[in-house]
Write a structure and sequence with these properties.
single chain; about 425 residues; alpha/beta; Molybdenum Cofactor Biosythetic Enzyme, Chain A; 17 strands
Length: about 425
């Protein structure tokens, strides 16, 4: 198959995911996400994605639609040996391609079964040796279903098995080579850079950046060279900047300029972590300063401790945590005053401060961090509504406290409270 003469500057792709299990929610469509990232790394833009069931007409309708605008159509799923695996036949029929038995595929398949000690070759697997007329066979290093690629007008249509390991193996092997040959200079490198923020809502962050761009020509000029996406979750908002250029140096320079101009506007909420997890930054800061940490948790129920200890090497700086959920534990283990608990309640600045100092004293840490609040859905009052959380930190005898009202359900409040506590710690160090 030779390279096609295409007029568009950047190759566009469509991903078609096949399988009833995807539509019914029985299986998460991880293949589409993986393919999107893999294609972007090659400089191929994924313009559309489809999910269809194991129905011939549905597959054909979607594939036909995709070929009308896309240079590359990748179909995953439906290449197995069972009766519901109909992708190969549906696509061949759609484009009027007769199927023929590939004898080399048959021989390799028989050898594979014998090498694994399976005895007789199952007749049901014969369908995996059938190839549409004019198709290129893409070797599968991890399974029995080969990938298939055929040129249909201006589009390249590729069929891959739905098993992730097999799909990855074909893509990184034969398909990568084919795409390099077929698309040639149409693949424009795409470079991403992600800036991590926490403690600011997506809408407010976008508002601030847009206001700054209107008032600051250098910022506007730098941002014109990249595309900016806001990626929020319970822990914060990631800013993903994307730059495309034939030259990697030019793309990276554009990202450098955008990051430099954005820094002054988002430094209040930004943290740096290759993994994206603020715990990475917290652990690094504690280690750099030679400080140890102990944590007292009420409403978060050990979530902060879990996140800290999920990272290897946590013992370098983290001594331990106390889950003081009941007031009796706050008093007996952390030394919180019964009088203050009765007067101010567990969700209060006074109690949070005593929890932080108590855990630091009892575990012998340099830093004490505490969180107490109303996670919900019950337990809230007019004075202390659901979502009210008090954070406290003690370092070198100095106390720092903060009260935040978090929105959302119980899970959201707990996640946001844990993230806010870690952010307060990082910004204090």
């Amino acid at each position: 198959m030779g390279a096609c003469n295409m007029t568009r500057e950047i190759a566009r792709a469509a991903i078609v995911s096949v399988g009833n299990e995807l539509l019914f929610g029985e299986t998460i469509n991880s293949n589409a996400a993986w393919l999107g990232r893999a294609l972007a790394e090659k400089g191929i833009v994924v313009s559309r994605g489809y999910t269809v069931g194991d129905a011939r007409t549905s597959i054909q309708d979607v594939v036909w639609t995709a070929t009308q605008f896309a240079d590359l159509v990748i179909i995953s799923g439906g290449l197995g040996p069972t009766t519901d695996d109909i992708t190969r036949n549906a696509v061949a029929d759609l484009f009027g391609r007769r199927l023929h038995r590939d004898e080399s595929l048959l021989a390799n398949l028989r050898d594979r079964f014998h090498a694994h000690g399976y005895g007789e070759f199952p007749e049901t697997n014969l369908s995996q040796t059938e190839v549409p007329e004019g198709a290129i066979v893409l070797r599968n290093p991890h399974g029995t279903a080969p990938g298939l690629a055929l040129e249909q007008g201006p589009a390249l249509v590729v069929m891959l098995p739905g098993v992730p390991r097999e799909l990855h193996g074909i893509f990184l092997g034969d398909l990568s080579t084919l795409l390099e040959e077929w698309l040639g200079g149409r693949m424009v490198p795409v470079h991403h850079r992600t800036l991590h923020t926490t403690g600011v809502p997506e809408s407010r962050l976008a508002e601030l950046i847009e206001e700054a761009m209107r008032a600051d020509p250098p910022l506007a000029s730098a941002m014109a060279e990249v595309s900016l996406a806001y990626l929020p979750d319970l822990r914060g908002v990631d800013l993903r900047m994307t730059a495309s250029s034939v030259s990697s140096e030019e793309a990276e320079a554009s990202l450098d300029r955008a990051e430099e101009e954005l820094e002054a506007r988002i430094s209040r909420w930004r943290y740096r972590a290759k993994s994206g997890d603020i715990v990475e930054s917290v652990s690094g800061a504690l280690t750099d300063r030679g400080l140890t940490l102990a944590v007292a948790e009420s409403c978060t129920g050990g979530l902060i401790t879990k996140r800290l200890t999920d990272r290897p090497g946590a013992s370098t700086s983290f001594l331990g945590g106390v889950i003081a959920y009941d007031d009796s534990v706050k008093m007996s283990v952390l030394g919180v005053s019964q009088q203050d608990l009765s007067r101010f309640g567990a969700v209060s600045e006074v109690v949070a401060r005593q929890m932080a100092s108590g855990v630091s004293e009892r575990l012998g840490s340099d830093v004490g961090l505490a969180v107490t609040g109303v996670a919900g859905p019950d337990g809230g009052t007019k004075e202390k509504p659901v979502g009210r959380v008090w954070l406290a930190l003690i370092l070198n005898g100095a106390n720092k406290t903060r009260s935040i009202d978090f929105p959302g359900d119980r899970e959201a409040v707990r996640e946001r409270a844990a993230q806010a506590a870690l952010a307060m710690l990082l910004r204090t160090l």
